Amino acid sequence: MKMKSLVAVLLFVACAASVPLSDNFLDQSWQTYMKLFNKKYETAENEFVRRVIWEKNLQYVNQHNLEADMGLHTYWLGLNEYADLENREFVKKMNNLIPRNLTTYKPKLIFANDNIKDLPDTVDWRTKGYVTEVKNQAQCGSCWAFSTTGSLEGQIFKKTGKLVSLSEQNLVDCSASFGNNGCEGGLMDNAFKYIKKFGIDSEASYPYEGVDAKCRYKKSEVVATDTGYVDVKSMSEDSLQSAVAKVGPISVAIDAGHLSFQLYKHGVYKESRCSATALDHGVLAAGYGTDNGQDYWLVKNSWGGSWGVKGYIKMARNHNNMCGIATQASYPTV
């Protein structure tokens, strides 16, 4: 019913304005987009709605990139598999992190080391074997599970020298009693608690489905566990830098609820509307560095390889805690 109502509204607007809502000159580009990302819509009406949203997002991308080419932005946008979604529906589907209550939460263990004098200028844990391939959470709000596995995969590799892809679906299906809610949201620290008690299966033995399902965890298939977790000193980018450099990839929470983030392509991401406390998305800080004088965090996302730089984003570092990246960081102990 919602889709029919939206179609009706769009048709009414088109008739009232006496202009088409879609640009015929973009027909071939639209067909290419659908083919490239294997888009198949249930009805012609549904495709019409997605085409209108896609064209609106294309205009936004073109305007932003024109400004970026003139030096007004430090990053560029592009069309990815999410370009046919309105930002608010995209956020509702993909960004379901359950953030901590920052006023009442009292961490038990804190990594607080603000001394960055002797740290390397650049860290990229991908080159050291700590990071698995970029994954895709699909249209399920399980970002928290991917952030969890990413951090634990790195710590297990650090301890054993073996990189094993861990099961996000295991966490989606089985960690509700620890405060997580599957595709409707969760928190990395809650997932670390679950893993401490039960362990976690491998991706191979418990593959990802992107939907809430019955728990099929098998103790015999457990390939990793943890002994707890450590929270990085909140709001301190220096402590986060120390943790990334000395510990490995770190789970972080960010404000990713902006169209500019949804359609990010490359460059150092700076979004003036980003909040340092309204966090809605779990990702992985896999390193840091400097690009043309711009300090950045190297962040692994879970939206597939078509998003960003093959699934990664460079987020501004030492820029007022951009999007809250240093507000709620943590990592497991093994």
TrEMBL record:
Keywords, sorted A to Z: Disulfide bond, Hydrolase, Protease, Signal, Thiol protease, Zymogen
Stored PROSITE patterns: PROKAR_LIPOPROTEIN, THIOL_PROTEASE_ASN, THIOL_PROTEASE_CYS, THIOL_PROTEASE_HIS
GO molecular function, one term: cysteine-type peptidase activity
Residue ranges crossing the lipid bilayer per the database entry: none
Signal peptide range: 1-18
UniProt domain Peptidase C1A papain C-terminal: residue ranges: 119-333
Domain Cathepsin propeptide inhibitor: 30-90
UniProt superkingdom: Eukaryota
One BP annotation, GO: proteolysis
SUPFAM superfamilies in the cross-refs: Cysteine proteinases
Family according to the record: Belongs to the peptidase C1 family.
Protein name from the UniProt record: Cathepsin L1-like
